[in-house]
Design goal:
Layout (H helix, E strand, L loop, with lengths): L5 H13 L2 H8 L3 H15 L4 E3 L4 E3 L1 H23 L8 E8 H18 L3 E8 L12 E4 L8 E16 H7 L13 E3 L12 H5 L7 E2 L3 H9 L4 E5 H4 L5 E4 L5 E10 L6 H16 L1 H4 L8
Parallel strand pairs: 3-4, 3-5, 7-8, 7-9
Antiparallel strand pairs: 1-2, 5-11, 6-9, 6-10, 6-11
Helix pairs in contact: 1-2, 1-3, 1-4, 2-3
């Protein structure tokens, strides 16, 4: 049997990680027809079916799962070989980091230049949106998640807790009075997430405060919610690192507080790559330095 082309294995790996031929093709920078042709060629060469077609995309068969474990080891070895060719101390290649929208924009993005300046040859993808890429499927090198993963080939460690409080614009308080639990949703409109578009159960803040509370101004974006609250449109829950550092906002109903956590997650096969280790160390130090932005020193109203 002729040797299997590495390109075919790379395409297989991309489809296994993304779950869709089209997404894999976009990741690889080729067209979906090429990826599909290489997959069929690989299956014919091995005499095995590697994926089952579903309405959502491609799902690995048992043979595909077995091959994936071997190909991921090959990919990790190739990455380590590539790092060994770099000049001493230099980081090259691409580092993809997946974080929540608020944390990514309000904390990581404000300081990422310092890390990038130390590693000018490294390309950094900061994916900060509503949802997360999966380290277990190698969609991201590093992810900051809202909960510790319960399964998968990943390594997770607690990065930090962070506090959330109810906030309102100072202009709203002047206009409509200071909100209380009794006035929320009645005299004071509530701002919050769209329930059926929540990408993590940890975002159900209002249910934790009072199960009867329901927002009538809703957005899938925490940044859009922050802007609505700052504009005086309503009262809502914001992380301290957003609401506590906007002078147009004030914390209301100070005895109400919610605590959540950030988890730093990497794939167990790539966590020792130098670029991954360097970013994990930098992010951990950044969070230690910025702890006051995540957790307030006291519970008094600003």
């Amino acid at each position: 049997m002729q040797p299997i082309a590495w390109n075919d294995l790379q395409d297989f790996l991309a489809v296994a990680r993304t779950g869709q031929i089209a997404r894999a093709a976009a990741l690889l920078g080729v067209d979906a027809t090429t990826v599909g042709r290489r997959l069929r060629r690989l299956e014919a060469r091995l005499g095995r079916t590697l994926f089952e077609q579903t309405r959502e995309g491609q799902v690995l068969t048992e043979a595909g799962e077995s091959l994936l474990a071997q190909v991921e080891q090959m990919a990790s070895a190739a990455e380590r070989i590539g790092e060994g060719a770099d000049p001493p101390g230099a980081l090259t290649g691409t580092l993809r980091v997946s974080v929540s929208e608020g944390f990514g924009i309000w904390l990581v993005a404000q300081h990422l230049d310092a890390f990038a300046a130390v590693h000018p040859a490294l390309t950094i993808d900061l994916v900060a949106n509503s949802g997360f890429l999966s380290p277990s499927r190698r969609e991201a090198d590093v992810a900051v998640l809202l909960a510790r993963p319960r399964h998968g080939p990943v390594v997770a460690s607690k990065l930090s807790d962070y506090a959330l409080h109810l906030y309102a614009a100072r202009s709203l308080v002047e206009r409509d009075g200071l909100p209380t639990l009794a006035t929320l949703g009645i005299r004071h409109r509530l701002v919050g997430y769209i329930p059926d578009l929540l990408y993590a159960p940890e975002l159900r803040y209002l249910n934790e405060i009072d199960s009867a509370l329901a927002p009538t101004l809703r957005s899938s974006s925490i940044n859009a919610q922050a802007r609505l609250i700052a504009a005086g449109a309503g009262v809502g829950v914001l992380p301290h690192f957003i609401g506590g550092h906007d002078e147009s906002l004030m914390r209301v109903i100070p005895d109400v507080a919610v605590t959540r956590g950030f988890w730093l997650v990497t794939h167990r096969d790539t966590r020792q790559l130098r670029r991954v280790r360097a970013f994990r160390q930098w992010l951990t130090q950044l969070v230690d330095q910025q702890r006051h932005r995540l957790l307030p020193a006291c519970n008094t109203v600003p």
